[in-house]
Amino acid sequence: MRSFSSKINTKSKLFLENYEEMKKLVKKLDGHLEEGRFQGKEKHLDRARKRGKFLARERLEFVLDQDSPFLELLPLAGMEKKGGFGAGGTNVSGIGIVSGKLCMINSNVGTRKGGSVDYSTTFKALRIGEITVENKLPTINLVESGGANLPDQAKIFNYGGETFRQITQRSKLGLTTISIVFGNATAGGAYVPGMSDFSIFQKNAAKVFLAGPPLVKMATNEIATDEELGGAEMHSRVSGVSDYLAEDELDGIRIAREIMEFVHTKKPFFEPEEEIEEPKFDAEEILGVVSANVKKPFDARELIARISDGSKISEFKPEYGNTLITCWTKIQGYPVGILANNGVIFSESANKGAQFIQLSNKNNIPLIFMHNTTGYMVGKAYEEGGIIKNGAKLINAVSNSQVPHITLMIGSSYGAGNYGMNGRSYHPRFLFAYPNSKVGVMGSEQLAGVMEIIQRAASKKMGIPFDKDNAEMLKQMMMMEAESKSSAWYSTSELWDDGLLDPRETRNYLGFALAVVYQNEIKGADAYGVWRM
């Protein structure tokens, strides 16, 4: 593969101004991520310390191998949800290495709302379950939770049960779940250790029961203590719900790591050679390359060159359908195909993308989709040219492709362009986004403009004067609403991505995600739906 020659002038005014704008967005992201690391009020942290407890993120560090990377997922879930528990909810989740094996790890934040589960935490857990199954990972749960947040129970009851179903289905597939209980695991929370393959209860701390003493007294008039109903020793010696009785938190973590030593996981399907060539260009330059304002175009090749091994890219059909870049490269030693928007999607771009997806499937190469498009091209000439059928080919190829997909939002992702580029509804293995990105049916100005045209037509049809002042007020309100709900902050809060990232960390995130997908055999599709020719 040839090494890419950059056309970027890193000293230009345009580059430097964009760098500063993107840096502001990254600073804002860092602030939100700091909010997501909140583990409870100081008084709750102090109380936990006095009881000899570790915090959720400390437990996570102890269970990981020394110097293991950790890919935290959905750290800002629920960030903008009114009435919720804030960024990240009450669970820290991600992928790391335990006893030399990649694992999904979930750590309840018991010092934040007692570790109880709100609406966003419920859906975060469901998404984590999907990622776990798709990538065939074992799971370690670090449990301390009061169960469902009762004010949210009507909204989460019917969804929350899916998490228990996922545990048992993973067990059937041979994907081990280990749960260490450090404190309360009440009501529905009791089913997490109850359905796990291995359960470890901490002595004098774990309290696991379907109903606590007050509810038992109310329901049966029976009087019992926490320990009698669900203590670690009772469950280890009498009920058999616990498989191991841990002396303290570190002992529980030791047991889990010991179990992981003999848990069977497949050897990685592919591992890169030891020597990996770094990109020719500094990752810092990405902040100047990627446009902070999605209305300003940039060449996605410049981004790809700054994350690829040796900045080497093998571009497919470089002279055809040039608003969609298709190329093969390596990231951290892992072969990958990339589809990256360089603007609106024309028929030629769609056809090229569909062919590239077919070729990548024939060669069992995973795909990365980089979104920066306003969607498919519209207009009389393009309709006559078959933009619908050609756009459908790309969606068909994306839908039926069987190699792993990873999606990265680097700019705008509007309309059916989001679908053709493997948006959230097309179930990529991982979906990450930059803080500048926008997702929606269309841009805010276009949406407001379309609504104004409709209002004018309605006024004319009814034979009444068009109220310009009222229309302008509605237009501004609609633009503000659309702008807010297409932002990266809203998207990540709604769990439309698996995490926002600092663009300078792109290579690390994608490299880790590729390491995960390459754990299992990659086998491309050999059949697709009917293509309208």
In short, what is this structure?
The chain contains 20 helices and 16 strands. It has 533 residues and is of the alpha/beta class.
Notable characteristics:
533 residues, alpha/beta, eight-stranded mixed beta sheet, 16 strands, 42% helix, 17% strand, globular
Your description of this structure?
With 533 residues, the chain is of the alpha/beta class. It is 42% helix and 17% strand. The chain contains 20 helices and 16 strands. The strands form two sheets. Strands 1, 10, 11, 12, 13, 14, 15 and 16 form an eight-stranded mixed sheet that branches. Strands 2, 3, 4, 5, 6, 7, 8 and 9 form an eight-stranded mixed sheet that branches. Helix 16 (416-420) links the parallel strand 14 (405-414) and strand 15. Helix 4 runs parallel beside helix 5, helix 13 runs parallel beside helix 15 and helix 17 (444-462) packs antiparallel against helix 18 (468-485). The longest helix is centred in the N-terminal third of the chain and has 24 residues, at 13-36. The chain is globular and about 80 Å long. The relative contact order is 0.11. The model has no long low-confidence stretch (mean pLDDT 92).
